[in-house]
Automatic annotation (TrEMBL):
Chain positions with 4-aspartylphosphate modification: D64
Originating organism: Hymenobacter swuensis DY53
Keyword Aminoacyl-tRNA synthetase assigned: no
GO molecular function: phosphorelay response regulator activity; transcription cis-regulatory region binding
Record carries keyword Transmembrane: no
Entry GO terms, CC: cytosol; protein-DNA complex
Lineage top rank: taxon: Bacteria
Protein name per the record: Two-component system response regulator, LytR/AlgR family
Domain HTH LytTR-type: 156-265
Length: 265
């Protein structure tokens, strides 16, 4: 790539801090000057950041697909985005046929420095062209039909007295974090302590099967027995088996839209 005195301005939208830091580090080391003008971890943060940069929009967006509050495709529904996009994703090439249809570049995680260079070279060649048109509905459908490239946990080993017991994921209803202890709740109503935080479990479990309802609960789809409108912007879930002490399990306000999309997949 030909060096230029004008740095390329990049915006990173990524909900995994380590992945965002690694990408920013690779961009900093790149031969062509690249300046990261901002980072966001959610669709809402990305919208606010892009709106604040309207006077001087970035030259490229690095977008993760799954964000804290939904899919990054929602950005194209909320805003008119003309900036070229490079998606960063763990999904395999089958899923990414849709990206080719939409003329979108992508990088598979973990990002390889040489692939990053190739993507930036491609961006450089297209800088004088109009940004590609996005079909968010097509991208979403292709993503839902695809299988993630990574493998998720199939069982958890727990302690029962002096014994160890393996609990298959199929038997798990939900995880609850109470007083700094994470409990695995089975569909039969049994509880076991596990040595994971809910944040760690989110990365270990299939996101098509489990959803982080709020700070304290991560539930399997089959464990959500009922959903009730709590307020105009909140939802209450009834879990089966019942939550400890019949606790009211609300969906966090910022997750409501993502929760509805997850249910309607």
């Amino acid at each position: 790539m030909t060096s230029t005195t004008t740095p390329l301005r990049a915006l990173i939208v990524e909900d995994e801090p380590l992945a965002a830091t690694r990408l920013a580090g690779l961009l900093k080391k790149h031969p062509q000057p690249v300046v990261v003008v901002g980072t966001a971890e959610s669709v809402a943060e990305a919208v606010a950041l892009l709106q604040s940069l309207q006077a001087a929009p970035p030259d490229v967006l690095f977008l993760d697909i799954h964000l804290a509050d939904g899919l990054s495709f929602e950005l194209f529904e909320r805003l008119e985005i003309r900036t070229p996009v490079i998606f960063t994703t763990a999904y395999d090439k089958y899923a990414l046929r849709a990206f080719k249809v939409n003329s979108v570049d992508y990088l598979l995680k973990p990002i390889d420095p040489e692939e990053l260079t190739a993507a930036l070279d491609k961006l450089h060649r297209r800088q004088q062209q109009a940004a590609p048109q996005f079909d968010a509905a097509l991208l979403t459908r292709m993503l839902q039909q695809a299988q993630p490239a990574r493998e998720y946990k199939t069982r958890f080993v727990v302690r029962v007295g002096e014994h160890l017991k393996a609990i298959p994921v199929e038997q798990i209803a939900y995880f609850a974090s109470l007083e700094k202890v994470t409990l695995l709740h089975t569909r039969e109503g049994r509880r076991f302590v596990v040595d994971y935080t809910l944040e760690q479990l989110e990365g270990l479990l299939d996101p098509l099967e489990f959803f982080r309802l709020n700070r304290a609960y991560l539930a399997h789809a089959d464990a959500i027995h009922d959903i009730i409108h709590y307020t105009n912007s909140r939802l209450q879930t009834i879990l089966k088996p019942a939550a400890p002490d019949n606790d009211t399990v609300l969906v966090s306000r910022e997750k409501v839209n993502a929760f509805k999309a997850w249910l309607d997949r």
